[in-house]
Amino acid sequence: MKQKLLALLKKDPRISAKSLAKILGSTEKKVEAEIQKLLKSGEIVGFATVLNSNGKDGIEAMVEVRATTQRGRGFDEVAERIARFPEVVNLFLISGSHDLNLLVRGKSLAEVANFVNRKVAVLENVTGTTTHFLLKKYKEDSLIFGEKMGDKRLKVSA
Amino acid sequence: MKIPTNKTLASIPPSGIRKFFEIVAERKDVISLSVGEPDFDAPWCVREAAIAALESGETHYTPNKGYSELRSEIAKYFSRKFGVDYSAETEVLVGNGASEIFDLVVRSILNSGDEVILFSPSYVMYAPLIQLAGGVPIFVRQISEIQKKISPRTKAVVLGYPSNPTGATFGKSELQKIAKIVEQNNLLVISDEIYAELSFEKKHIAFASLPKMKARTATVSGFSKAFAFTGLRLGYLLAPADLTAAANKIHQYSALCANSISQIAAIEALKNCDSEVIKMREEYKMRRDFCVRELKKIGFQIQKPAGAFYLFLNVHKKTGLSGEDFALQLLEKEEVAVVPGSAFGTEFSDFVRISYATSLQNLEIAFEKIEHFLKN
Fold first, then answer.
1. What is the pLDDT of residues B198-246, one digit of tens each?
2. Whole-model pTM above 0.90?
3. Do A156 and B15 touch (CB under 8 A)?
4. Contacts of A158 in chain B (CB under 8 A)
5. Is the peptide bond before B162 cis (omega within 30 degrees of 0)?
6. Taking a C-beta distance cutoff of 8 angstroms, is the pair B238, B208 a contact?
7. CA distance linking residue B313 with residue B303, whole number of Å
């Protein structure tokens, strides 16, 4: 049940326990309990809503961060510190020319730039940052912006 | 002036599906459980390959039999999936959908008055195409009836499994029984296996994979169902070389070749779409289980069909309504469309065909409406 449940929630986080129970052939109670279990264990981190925020709600930037590792902890400490800032929407440790990749959100260009310079660049283990302001989003979390829904098929066919 | 059309054609009644389509087409907010094609669009990699093919100008005739790369990929695919080896050069023919392929096969083998045995209910195109090819369709309900219906004029047996409209399929022992009969009576088999990839319980067994059957089997298949490819119209024949050559002889005059862009898309589908096929199959399976549970909950007796994306439901037992009345009233009162079973033969007037090729969300609403319909 777990894998199917996760797949259904991933596809539609708003799906009701009633629908899940019907689809999985289970009861609402059992489904609720399973979701609670998955939340508790951390397997489900949370439920997000993807907004079409292109240019409407402030500004976003991808920020590349170069950092030094710490004995025994690698990049974890610096990453965990950066992750706590509410301005940071996504944070990944990656391979390649830099170490951490951030998506930062702010009200204005200045706010985002200030945040990067004053909060991230100054951290002890951070050796450099490069900020790329986002111009337009086409796809996020597997969802394509502006994609038209609807059934293109004939209503009845053999 | 009234145009005098072909007598055989005039004797064939209009399609029951078509009739119902016209009724449903007039209505707007219908949840349709009457669609005989996947609700998925073709996988993006396939569409992308088609776009690239158009851009690079692959807009010309192809070899009559289809591009050799496609024929070779089809042969590899069939060998990998179902364990039967075909020569890409002489035993594979690509055509415009499995329907054209079926037409080519019956026109290749039948002489006027030859009889073809087929199961009832079965897909709506078989009988008319047999008739147009001069043949006589002879219907059976079960394997055990085949032997009794064989006459000196019997030429072939048509199989279609997993089945549209029932979703049922044949297991090994059933196929062995059929194999024994066709061998003893020296018959051909036309095996429409277009839903093979949509087998949920056991692995699909190709009829040609049974001992000694490859030599007397024409396997008809295509990309519409497994790869959600219906509008791209691409099917294929796997058959002994002489039959393939005969079918190609008609194909080269009537169609010349299948659509070049679709052929290139199909090569991509066979090379890179296994995971997409599995994903779609799992989704259909989840929907099937959902539908069967919901139908049982509201008091219908139904067995889990093993494949395709259809349920063939006797509605008369529970509601007292004929399939046609059930379908019309359900459409009128609840705006849910199912196909009356009579479209698949007059003896199925107690049935409806439910297609679950639609989202779980739609299915949930549809079954709530069906439940509401039954209560009133």
1. 999 999 999 999 999 999 999 999 999 999 999 999 999 999 999 999 9
2. yes
3. no
4. 15, 17, 36, 123-125, 164, 343
5. yes
6. yes
7. 9
